[in-house]
Design a protein that fits this description.
By secondary structure, the protein is mostly beta strands. It has helices spanning 74-77, 85-91, 94-99, 133-138, 212-216, 224-227, 274-282, and strands spanning 10-27, 30-46, 48-54, 57-67, 70-73, 108-109, 113-116, 125-129, 148-152, 157-158, 163-166, 174-175, 178-184, 200-207, 210-211, 233-241, 252-257, 260-266, 292-294, 316-321, 325-333.
């Protein structure tokens, strides 16, 4: 299933300057003045970046962008651009990608491909705990004064057509957490909050799947093992570039399991805003191209329901964020 909000690639022209010329001519010895306006325009883009594999070649991940209900293969359009999104970012080729729609390249039907995680092979998956006011309220907790940072292994990342696979012999308390996710576009070190958005490529949807027993009870209070089981970080379906989302702290966000709504909120509930988190993180480490930052989950997780609810094989999760789309995740037994 592929379902996104406003998923087409939108190209428009921006008026960058207006010049008015005054032309004088004489008619019957009378001077007449006419004004003529000249407009200078440049293309601007709002893109939804994806990665995918061709049905006939499932072992090769390709970068592309969505164009309506089709996909444009970036490397096939311009072979000088790398074939994966991480290499595009490392090479600094994003501006070349943004110019491709002007060439009106051929596109591919979605039926011919399978969407993969929109970024892979990156260095870091960083997460923020207790970062929604309503998530703190459902636990009767005071929001933390500083961001609560933890991590997942990058190997946990899977795509929108991949399943979360449960080790039911190891855990029976696996929970959902829909999260707005920031994708870093270029190296960021010692970045001030006022400049933070300059380092953001865009945003995607993630599920911070969590084995609560291992997160809370079976690993001495350390989150890592409960957060980093195989397949525990589905992301997708696309990365909406930051120019399409000027204010990421004003988006609806929701999650349903088997068609039943579990989480519904807005990113205006974020306790620690994205620029402040980037400043804090980049003060102690360099954020690299492709690194992803899961910004926290709203209220409505399974653990704090009465009675508690947990995922089981056969469940289907739908995670949706405004201007990005819907991430569908199947749950299977490993």
């Amino acid at each position: 299933m592929l379902n996104t909000s406003n998923m087409s690639v939108v190209w428009s022209v921006a008026i960058t300057s207006i010049k008015t010329l005054f032309i004088t001519k004489s008619v019957n010895n009378t001077k007449l003045i006419n004004s003529v306006r000249r407009f200078s325009i440049t293309p601007s883009s709002n893109m939804k970046l994806v990665q995918f594999v061709y049905n006939e070649n499932p072992g090769e991940i390709r970068a592309g962008y969505l164009e309506g209900d089709k996909v444009v293969d970036i490397n096939k359009t311009d072979c000088s651009i790398p074939s994966t999104l991480l290499e595009i970012l490392k090479n600094g080729d994003l501006e070349k990608v943004k110019k491709l729609p002007l060439m009106k390249p051929p596109s591919i039907d979605l039926s011919s491909i399978k969407l993969a995680a929109p970024i892979h092979g990156h260095d870091k998956v960083l997460c923020i705990g207790l970062n929604y006011k309503d998530h703190c309220e459902e636990q009767n907790l005071t929001p933390p004064q500083v961001p609560l940072i933890f991590s997942k292994f990058a190997s946990t990342v899977v795509g929108p057509k991949d399943a979360v696979k449960l080790r039911t012999d190891v855990t029976n308390k696996v929970d959902w957490e829909v999260e707005l996710t920031v994708v870093i576009g270029k190296p960021a070190s010692r970045v001030k909050a006022k400049d933070a958005y300059k380092y953001v490529l865009g945003y995607t949807v993630a599920q911070d799947i969590s084995a609560r027993d291992w997160q809370k009870e079976r690993n001495g209070g350390q989150f890592l093992l409960g957060k980093s089981m195989d397949t525990f970080c589905p992301i997708g379906p696309c990365i909406t570039t930051s120019d399409e989302i000027p204010d990421p702290q004003s988006l609806y966000i929701k999650c349903s399991v088997n068609g039943v709504e579990k989480q519904k909120s807005n990113t205006n509930q974020l306790v620690h805003k994205i620029p402040d988190v980037i400043e804090r993180l980049s003060s102690v480490m360099t954020l690299l191209p492709g690194d992803i930052l899961l910004t926290g989950t709203p209220g409505g997780v399974g653990m704090y329901r009465s009675p508690p609810e947990y995922l089981k094989p056969g469940d289907v999760i739908h995670s949706e964020i405004e201007k990005i789309g819907v991430l569908e995740t199947r749950v299977e037994q490993l």
